[in-house]
Structure formats: structure tokens, C-alpha cells
Write a structure and sequence with these properties.
Largest interface: A-B, 28 and 28 residues
Helix content of chain B: under 10%
Shape of chain A: globular
Largest sheet of chain A: 6 strands, mixed
Radius of gyration of chain A: 14 Å
Strand content of chain A: over 45%
Number of strands of chain A: 12
Oligomer: heterodimer
Number of helices of chain B: 0
Distance between the termini of chain A: 41 Å
Helix content of chain A: under 10%
Largest sheet of chain B: 7 strands, mixed
Number of helices of chain A: 0
Structural class of chain A: mainly beta
Structural class of chain B: mainly beta
Shape of chain B: globular
């Protein structure tokens, strides 16, 4: 079974600073996708960013970037210029090419301080 | 123009009752899912459907019965509700399976008393 590890249960970050959320994964499959989702206190799950295992470049979406280190099996999320609205729980997830599911990490709670 | 919608958003019921949660997606996706988020916020797949066919039943008690009348709908019926069923249930959809991005509904918060 795929395992996704997020070792930081909670983090504090100052407004306008960058924050890195760690994610490591374990799979022997060569083809897979890595995802980050945001869950604010209102409860919805918001897709943020995707990285394919064969992608040569790290994915970026606005203030979100994914630091993909394939050999280390890590897919860290970087949020730049943090805003108060970034306070939420963030989930790392993975799906293999033949999967019909996402496997999720335990999540990291980010609190942005003014 | 909500992409993935679920009803109801909140569900409070007594132990032993039967309840249903409805999910609809207007994205034209082929694959739909049900996930359960427990009190510790852990998310786990329950069911996956592709083109109305059940693909995954991830060791879910048979009190839970999904039904997909068409590609745009995936409903979840729960019989004989138990206290441990209290959780947030998310419906999601993706164009195809595998590495396709899954888009989630707003969640249904179920509380069994």
C-alpha cells in the first residue's frame, strides 16, 4: 500500500513569509501523481497543485510551488508570501497511474500570524 | 455553477436510522469517489466508480451501499447507522482514474447520536 508521510502536525508562519510543508511518499511504481489540497476551517477540500512523476520541472501555481525530489521521494509544498487566508490544513496525496483512489497523508495545519 | 455538489451538508440522526447522501458533478467526469474523513482529519477512500461501475470497495461495511444511476451522480446510502459512522463524507470526481486531479464536493457532516 502507498504511504504518504507528513511529519509536521502544525506550523506557524508570519504573514508575508514563505513556508515549506514536508511530504514524503513510498511507492515502487514508476508512474504516479502527487497532489496538494487545502482544507480551510470551513471544511471544503481545495485542489492546489499537481506534480507528475515524469515531469522534469517542479510544478508552480501562483504562490504555490512543489519542490519535487524524486530520488528522495519527497514532494514538499512551498507557499510564498503567506496570507492570513492561507491558514488551513494542507494534505499531500498520491495516486499511481492505475489507481482509482488518492492516498492521503495525515495533514499539516498552518496558522499564519499577522 | 458548482462543479461537485453534495446534499445534505449536515446530517444529524439517531443510531439505527437509515440515511442517504447525494452527489452530483457537472464536470463531465467519468470517475467518482466517496471518501471518509474521521475525527482526526484522516481521509480514506471508501468507493470508486468508473462510468457507473463499482471499481473499489475499500473494506467498507455492507451497511454502506453506493449507487450510481448515471455518470454524473453517485449516491451513498447508509443502513443502521452507528456512532462510529460520525464523520465527514466527501464525494469527488475526476475525468479519468489514475493521476487525474480529483475535485471534491463540500462534504457532508454526519453526526450519529
Amino acid at each position: 500500500a502507498q504511504k504518504i508521510t507528513q511529519t509536521q502536525p502544525g506550523m506557524f508562519v508570519q504573514e508575508k513569509e514563505a513556508v515549506t510543508l514536508d511530504c514524503t511518499y513510498d511507492t515502487s511504481d514508476p508512474s504516479y501523481g502527487l497532489f496538494w489540497y487545502k482544507q480551510p476551517s470551513s471544511g471544503e477540500m481545495i485542489f492546489l497543485i499537481y506534480q507528475g512523476s515524469y515531469d522534469q520541472q517542479n510544478a508552480t501555481e501562483g504562490r504555490y510551488s512543489l519542490n519535487f525530489q524524486k530520488a528522495r521521494k519527497s514532494a514538499n509544498l512551498v507557499i510564498s508570501a503567506s496570507q492570513l487566508g492561507d491558514s488551513a490544513m494542507y494534505f499531500c496525496a498520491m495516486a499511481r497511474s492505475n489507481d482509482y483512489k488518492l492516498s492521503f497523508g495525515a495533514g499539516t495545519t498552518v496558522t499564519v500570524r499577522a | 455553477d458548482t462543479a461537485v455538489s453534495q446534499t445534505p451538508k449536515y446530517l444529524v440522526t439517531q443510531m439505527g436510522n437509515d440515511k442517504s447522501i447525494k452527489c452530483e458533478q457537472n464536470l463531465g467526469h467519468d470517475t467518482m469517489y466517496w471518501y471518509k474523513q474521521d475525527s482526526k482529519k484522516f481521509l480514506k477512500i471508501m468507493f470508486s466508480y468508473n462510468n457507473k461501475e463499482l471499481i473499489i470497495n475499500e473494506t467498507v461495511p455492507n451497511r454502506f451501499s453506493p449507487k450510481s444511476p448515471d455518470k454524473a451522480h453517485l449516491n451513498l446510502h447508509i443502513n443502521s447507522l452507528e456512532l462510529g459512522d460520525s464523520a465527514v463524507y466527501f464525494c469527488a470526481s475526476s475525468l479519468l482514474a489514475g493521476e487525474e486531479t480529483q475535485y471534491f464536493g463540500p462534504g457532508t457532516r454526519l453526526l450519529v447520536l
